[in-house]
Amino acid sequence: MEYRRLGRTGTRVSNLCLGAMTFGEPTESSFMHGIAASSETSWAMMGRALDAGVNFIDTADVYGNDGLSERVIGEWFVRNGRRTDWVLATKCRFRMHQGPLGSGASRRRIMLACEASLRRLHTDYIDLYQIHMQDKDTPEEEVLRALDDLVHQGKVLYTGCSNYAAYRLVQADWVADKRNLHPFATLQAEYSLIVRSLEREHIPYMERSGMGLLPWSPLAGGLLSGKYHRGEDAPTGTRLAKWQDRLKGLDQADRNWRIVETLRHVAAELNTTPAAVALAWVRDRPAVSSVIIGVRSVEQLDDNLKAATLVLPPEARARLDAVSALPLDYPYSFIQGFDGTW
Q: I need a surface site. Which of 79, 127, 243, 265 has the fewest CB within 10 A?
């Protein structure tokens, strides 16, 4: 297992991060109902990942019903007493209860959400506390000030953000610098062979600033696992069988299926799986600190773990780069026309 700096921090994390969105069996009201893992399976995956060298786990208060994922992880800590073996990341921002105070990234919401996560996780500190999405109604200074106070209180060691626009990243860094506040160490965002839009603005800025990228959905909801075929229904029990609207959108893009076919060819040549190839491609992209893998069985975890050490030959990487190349519009196409690159 390779270990990398967690963005702007000195802490080193495994190049694969165990995503816990699937942890616990939620009720029918949850978007993860029917496609999640039992508590027992979740605990088995935590043990297996740790044995394989994974030391980084990511969750959020909104995963499952009433903080279910956090409670499952917290119970593992209680049973095993190995809290310090993990770099623990969680998030707040999305709705946890009804009413005007049930969501958002105000100071009040952040402080109360952090305390609730600490209780559910049975820990007295969170290694990486992230804002799950930018809040247009809350000034960035209020967000950063609240997080900075949590750091000074010792309840949070590092802070990060997720699903932020590039302009908001720059604004957050400016505020942190001018107000002497702790800046975001990382950005968690969707990134895969299918979704490469971060390469326009986010990743160039992150390379220059030192912020680390934590890609989520690196397999595009499972499409890049190789088990889906064009024009066919999704296999029963899979995420895209439940998320039909997302499958419909993915299925209509010819580019996506060219990527899947190229993945299958490269995987066959390397005697591995399409998922391992797709994860290895993301792992080696600029600014990436760790790739978040979301699995719901030990077997899926073992398959994804192959990506930790898989070496992609330059020729294979070039084919994947080409088939998934990002379409350019203005101003990127204009810049590329003069400079040859953007």
A: 79
